Amino acid sequence: MLSVGKSLDEKFTSFKQKGSFDGSRKDINAAIDRISEFTGTKIIFWDLREPFIENLYKPTVSQSRMESLIEPLDNELNQLCSIIVEPLRDRIVTSLLQASMDGLLRVLLDGGSSRVFFVADTKLLEEDLEILKEFFISGGDGLPRGVVENHVARARHVIKLHSYETRELIDDLKSASGLERQSVGGSLGADTQTLLRILCHRSDTEASQFLKKQFKIPKSSG
């Protein structure tokens, strides 16, 4: 009986230790995720704030392209990869990719009155997104293509919305927000806030008049 009791005690102790280690692993993984997220956000919104968040696409898209950001972004990434262990590389780089997409969406949707976009800019915006995407894929040496594609999907959709004429955006916003009596929802696959923000960055008379009439938003000074 003594040996049986001892065996049960050993198994119970082993089980408790395993549970403790499992909990520790979860805490460590959660901490790594938070540090990775912070690192990516710091690089884009602090270290590269001036060239990326403040100056990209100013004064126009054609005069400030994504290509100018690749070298400083590459420098930051190289410094990062030189101090992190290999098993954590993809997690850190993925966080930087996500922060880059957040930064790009900030520029496209919340860039302020000094940023305006035209339908003709869409091709340049698509090219820039491709440049940023390929930077993170790095010819197969970076993140898996599928992972990168998933992260750029929303930015790609927002850029697609920029390709629509102002009248199409207004009609879709009216439909999606119930401004029309027989509203059936928008057909462009965008929420009302996204459509509204795109119209706020559209520098033409039709957009300005609509925003002033429906939302009391003054004409952009850009």
From TrEMBL:
InterPro entries: Munc13_dom-2, PATROL1_C, unc-13_homologue
Organism expressing this protein natively: Turnera subulata
Domain (MHD2) ranges: 63-173
Protein encoded by which gene: PATROL1
PROSITE patterns, per database record: MHD2 (PS51259)
Name of the molecule in the record: Protein unc-13
Coiled-coil positions: none
